[in-house]
Amino acid sequence: MEKSLFDKYGGFSVVSKIVLDLYDRLLDDDDVGPFFDEIDMARIVDHQTKFVSSLMGGPASYTDEQIRKMHAHLEIHQLHFDKLQSLLRATLADHGVSPEDQEAILAAFEARRRLVTE
């Protein structure tokens, strides 16, 4: 049986480090950083860790409807999604995720674009 990317890269402890690093980058970005003003960062990092874990084949998952509801109140445009995707790619690369595995994770992320963008 083939290992999931989640298991291959070390599970929640590694994904948590990736997500914390990603949020450092997101908060510094002028386009997407403002989305996180006045947000409970511990809560969102927890959700994002579960979400990225699910993108990597891990045990946590969100339904399309849950993702849509969580983002419905935000005005997320294609530019914002593209920026997040770019920062996710750079973060994955900096944490040693191979290019082909980055593509698999980013493809799973891209598949959810229509759920969160206007």
Automatic annotation (TrEMBL):
- Recorded GO MF terms: heme binding; metal ion binding; oxygen binding
The UniProt entry, under InterPro entries, shows: Globin-like_sf, Globin/Proto, Hemoglobin_trunc
Q: Which Pfam families match?
A: Bac_globin
Q: Which domain of life is it from?
A: Bacteria
- Which keywords does this Swiss-Prot/TrEMBL entry list? Heme, Iron, Metal-binding, Transport
Q: Does the keyword section mention Coiled coil?
A: no
Q: What is this protein called?
A: Group 1 truncated hemoglobin
Positions binding heme in this chain are 47, 71
Q: Which Gene3D superfamilies match?
A: Globins
